[in-house]
Amino acid sequence: IEKFSEYVADGLVDTELIRVESEHSALSACVGASAAGARTMTASSSAGLALMFEILGVTSGLRLPIVMNIANRALSSPINIHCDHSDSMNCRDAGWIQIYSENCQEVYDFNLIAIKLAEIINLPVMVMQDGFIVSHGVENLCILEDKKAKTFIGKYKPKFSLLDFKKPKTFGALQLTDYNFETKIQISKAMETAKLKYLEIAKEYSKVSGRNYNYYEYYGNKNAQEIIVVLSSTAGTVKSIIDENQSFGLIKINLFRPFPHEEIKNILKDKKRI
């Protein structure tokens, strides 16, 4: 928000900044903005994400395409402000698409992919990066020209808007047992569609950026019988070890929700140790 406030002050964006009481209020404000038809993004971490938890289900249940960046950090206690994935793992079944990033480049690329994916599927997306290890790291980064990025994402055209008074809509209506499961099934089916669309969008993005992202990245000896499976920045450490020892391989999972069960299973089925 500090960086974005500079864009506001410099007149690069037409935005009104509002101060809210908490992370719970922040995501609630995002729900209102997205329901009104605005392209909406936010960020959180650790206990802040835990405080948002009540609104995570609201966001996915209302099928709002909000993108949220998470700097993964441990939940207390003991008090620890550094990285683990306990914050986002608590949210893995909240109806949000989840993408994990190894480095700053992937954080940037996955955000552009996430915006397009969220708006096509009408589901919210979390983009994860490891707290401090990546969030406060300094790395070289290749970014797109603004025009190319805008062309790739496209202009946002919300399917519904609370502010369309000619066609009034109800958001968040009461659903009892007879209908609630139908909504949940729709979210589940949307997740299945998201898995297919992710690959399509990633391939489209590769034509613009030269960087391609599958559901996962395999690194090392294809015939290795021992495989290490990781998320996020841990992959960088494992890759450096594999460069010295080709006796095992690495699978780094990018798309964690929806999980690529069949694709991962096909790689691991004949391996001796995982």
List the defining traits of the structure above.
alpha/beta; 3-stranded mixed sheet; 9 helices; 5-stranded mixed sheet; 43% helix; 274 residues; 8 strands
Textual characterization of the structure:
With 274 residues, the protein is of the alpha/beta class. The chain contains 9 helices and 8 strands. The protein has helices at 2-9, 23-35, 46-61, 86-89, 104-121, 146-153, 177-209, 234-242, 261-268; strands at residues 41-44, 67-72, 97-100, 125-130, 216-220, 226-230, 248-253, 255-257. The strands form 2 sheets. It has a 5-stranded mixed beta sheet with strand order 1-2-4-3-8. Strands 5-7-6 form a 3-stranded mixed beta sheet, covered by helices on one side. Strand 6 (226-230), helix 8 (234-242) and strand 7 form a beta-alpha-beta unit. Helix 2 (23-35) runs parallel beside helix 3 and helix 5 (104-121) crosses helix 7 (177-209). The longest helix has 33 residues, at 177-209. The radius of gyration is 20 Å and the shape is globular. The chain starts with a helix and ends in a 6-residue tail after the last helix. The relative contact order is 0.12. The mean pLDDT is 95.
